Amino acid sequence: MKLLVTGGLGYIGSHTVKALYDHHHTAVIVDDLSNAKESVHHTLETLVNDTIPFYQADAKDIDAMRALFENYHFDGVLHFAGHKAVGESVSRPMMYYHNNLNSTLTLAQLCVEHRVSKFIFSSSATVYGDQPSPLHEGLELKKTTNPYGETKAISERMLTDIQRAHPSLSVALLRYFNPIGADESGLLGEDPQGIPNNLMPFITNVASQRIPQLNVYGDDYETPDGTGVRDYIHVSDLARGHVLALEKITEGVHIYNLGTGQGTSVFQMIEAFERVNQVSVPYRVVPRRPGDVAITYAAVEHARDQLGFQTEKSIDDMVKDSWRFTCNQKGTPSS
Ligand code: UFG
Predict the structure, then answer these.
(1) Quick one: average pLDDT of 228-250?
(2) What pLDDT sits at residue 335?
(3) pLDDT digits (tens, 9 = 90+) for 251-275
(4) What's the rounded mean pLDDT across residues 297-322?
(5) 148 Cα–ligand 1 center, Å
(6) Active site residue 148
(7) pLDDT tens digit string along 54-76?
(8) Same fold, 2-180+232-258 and 199-230+262-330
(9) What is the pLDDT of residues 188-204, one digit of tens each?
(10) To test ligand 1's pocket by mutation, which of 206, 270, 292 has the most ligand atoms within 8 angstroms of CB?
(11) Domain ranges across the chain
């Protein structure tokens, strides 16, 4: 299949482009480079040993996107482009609603206009709100705790309504849990601009001595060691989930969790990172971060039964691959 991949130079988008080529599909990448580096394009072409068309453009720019739909006859769209920093979304809600909703709407409109039937949307476990785990796809959604989460929940509802009005569309809403890790080549990985938001980029920054210590947000949760528990999934497993969704979905709206079903605490993650990589991650415990919940992990049966999706990589693989990528970046001391 020939796919339009928005945000294709970003963390999850780039790994998915690689997975698409591994499975004999081709991609046209759109990325506005707001949170990605152009050099990732060259890296991807080297890794897949092919040329990949790349356009620096904004996914909500309907004229620019329409030109692409007219030039290429896409079989589907994978829409990764979007702002994703929870804290920033609280201080800049208009930017989040404007960007994340208009890009989804623009692409859905063009799919309908050009009879492109497959739409794969990057959603998030955040749409479940604060509900007990395991989180399964049939749960009624609760209000999310921040504008970023709302953009994901609203996008899901928009796509569901659009599909209902245009029944030939096949829509996959993929609810990601916590993606970490990096491509095994060590050449693709998470390289956020500015101060990281998530646990793993903080850990790699501390391990490489760019940040003196990790803040552990609370050790008084009702969890085995008191720290927050999340369902971390290797980004290459996550990327493969997109390919399976693309290949398997039929007309309708299909919701899949992409997680492992296993919980890992912050302390367990630090222990694994230090043990596997033989590098130290100094930390201090600070008060809980507002909005955090104690435990989140996925119910994985639906994606397993419907897509045949099973994760292959362990936490040890994830921490090893995250650190390999960090060490390959210029100026980072290797372990
Ligand atoms: N944590 C720390 N210190 C840090 C960063 C995180 O202790 O410096 C802890 C958090 O308290 C939490 C765990 O590490 O217990 C994971 O935190 P992340 O920020 O990595 O991930 P979250 O689960 O909070 O957020 C992720 C995605 C969001 C998504 C959310 C809900 O990053 O996009 O899951 O699904 F909205």
Answers:
(1) 98
(2) 40
(3) 999 999 999 999 999 999 999 999 9
(4) 98
(5) 13
(6) yes
(7) 999 999 999 999 999 999 999 99
(8) no
(9) 999 877 777 899 999 99
(10) 292
(11) 2-180+232-258, 199-230+262-330
Q: What is the 3 state secondary structure string of the chain?
A: CEEEEECCCCHHHHHHHHHHHHCCCEEEEEECCCCCCCHHHHHHHHHHCCCCCEEECCCCCHHHHHHHHHHCCCCEEEECCCCCCHHHHHHCHHHHHHHHHHHHHHHHHHHHHCCCCEEEEEEEHHHHCCCCCCECCCCCCCCCCCHHHHHHHHHHHHHHHHHHHCCCCEEEEEEECEEECCCCCCCCCCCCCCCCCCHHHHHHHHHCCCCCCEEEECCCCCCCCCCCEECEEEHHHHHHHHHHHHHHCCCEEEEEEECCCCCEEHHHHHHHHHHHHCCCCCEEEECCCCCCCCECCECCHHHHHHHCCCCCCCHHHHHHHHHHHHHHCCCCCCC
CA-nearest residue, atom 20 of ligand 1: 198
For ligand 1, the distance from its centroid to the CA atom of residue 266, given in whole angstroms, is: 9
CATH architecture designation of domain 2-180+232-258: 3-Layer(aba) Sandwich (3.40)
CATH superfamily of 199-230+262-330: UDP-galactose 4-epimerase, domain 1 (3.90.25.10)
Is-above-0.70 flag for pTM? yes
